[in-house]
Amino acid sequence: MSDKKKLRVCAIKECTNFENPRLRAHPEIPRCKEHAEHQQFRKCSKCGSEDYVHRCAKTGPLCHDCYRTKQQEPEAEDVPQIEYLRNRITELNKLNKNLLRTAGEQKEMAATVAESVRATAPFPKYSYSRPKKSKSSISAVIMLSDWHIGEVIQANETEGFGQYDFEIAQDRLFNILTAFINWIDVQRSAYLIDSCAVFSVGDMISGDIHQELMVTNEFPIPVQAAKAGLLLGEAIRRIASHFKTVDVYEIGADNHSRLTKKPQAKQAAQNSMSYLVHTIANCVTEKHTNVKPHLAKGIKQVATVAGSRFLLEHENTVKAWMGIPYYGMQRERGREAIKRMNTPHTFDYLACGHWHVPGLIEGSMITNGSLSGTSEYDHSCGRHANPCQMAFLVHPKKRVFNLVPFTERIKFD
Q1: CA 20 to 30 Å from 154, out of 43, 61, 83, 324?
Q2: Kindly report the CA angle at 36 between 31 and 38, in degrees rounded to 5?
């Protein structure tokens, strides 16, 4: 039994017999007596050694070593595929090395960052104390323009992006005024706000300047002017009840209320339905002793609010190009600034309507939104702007701050 333990099992598959030492052909190839008889002890045709050989029809008898080498050699037709696979293995090995290198770099970077970052102590707990109210007298400003009273915008023609008539105009305006007054009440917790300036900068009616407006307007232009004037007067009345003084600056020269086919420069402020709008509004507020109207006689007017000077105009004199003409507005501001140098008519800000989009451009040009919102023409051009009117505060030293566009969002059905 001890001898059998030293013997190896026959290498032939599924054979469980022990090798026969006498028939051992190769130390790596144990054979039992039964299977050793199937091999011949002959000379190898390749290396010439005498051993138990494997029969091979193509090469002749081969010893075990030569036979194993032959088994590992590929066939001729497999050589290209093997070369491709070897190259592919080389490429994958390189890629794997690069991935390992990248992972190592990332791990090293993470370790470096983790070492450099240390938890810091929290800030001391903040103790809030109500600030003292500013002693400076702050003025509020609200811009009213581009109401286009009389225009009718159909929701089914704008996919719901725009809808407008006189009833909608009233609702939007009163909502905006309510929001403005509530905002002023909040600001008064920190600021002394006793005065208000109203910038009425034109296009209060739809007018008849286009053929499509002439045939679709809700009212004729005299009725438009009367309704717009009464609505503006009501807006000023509501504002006046919350301030000690209200200055109303009125620009009558615009494009929608003009009475000529082409824009005019001479008598543009008087030959306009906006002149009647402002006159009617001034009559409505005539008994309000804290309301002071400033009706411009020309196209432009300089208004002084809390020490800051605002150049007011409708801005229809700037030609539109590719949407809002920022460069045109810049050039006009530059020409006005140069023209007004060393005169009593200098200005710090330019405030206008016409573009239907609220904004502060380059810190000195303030544009107002519109009450009508997106029209059919805007929709055809891909433009959209929610109904909006701009408001802000003016500090005697810090000047304009807290600009707020009071917006009425369009609701889709």
Answers
A1: 324
A2: 140
DSSP three-state, residue 298:
coil
- State the Cα angle at 240 between 239 and 241, rounded to 5°: 95
Domain parsing of the chain, residue ranges = 2-74, 138-407
Measured between alpha carbons, how far is 250 from 83 in angstroms, rounded to an integer?
89
Whole-angstrom Cα distance, residue 154 to residue 373? 12
What does the DSSP assignment read for 326-382?
HHHHHHHHHHHHHHTTTSTT--SEEEE-SS---EEETTTEEE---SS---HHHHHTT
Looking at residue 21, the DSSP 8-state letter turns out to be: G
Contact 205, 146 (CB under 8 A): no
> What distance lies between CA 411 and its chain's CA centroid?
21
One pLDDT digit (tens) per residue for the chain, 413 residues: 445 456 666 655 556 666 655 555 455 566 665 555 445 556 677 677 665 556 665 566 767 677 666 665 666 666 788 788 888 999 999 999 999 999 999 999 988 888 777 777 777 877 777 767 778 899 999 999 999 999 999 999 999 899 999 999 999 999 999 999 999 999 998 899 999 999 999 999 998 888 889 899 999 999 999 999 999 999 999 999 999 999 999 999 999 988 888 888 888 888 899 999 999 999 999 999 999 999 999 999 999 999 999 999 998 888 877 778 888 888 999 999 999 999 999 999 999 999 999 999 999 999 999 999 999 988 888 888 899 999 999 999 999 999 999 998 888 77
CA-atom Rg of the chain in angstroms:
46
Annotation: CATH topology of 138-407: Purple Acid Phosphatase; chain A, domain 2 (3.60.21)
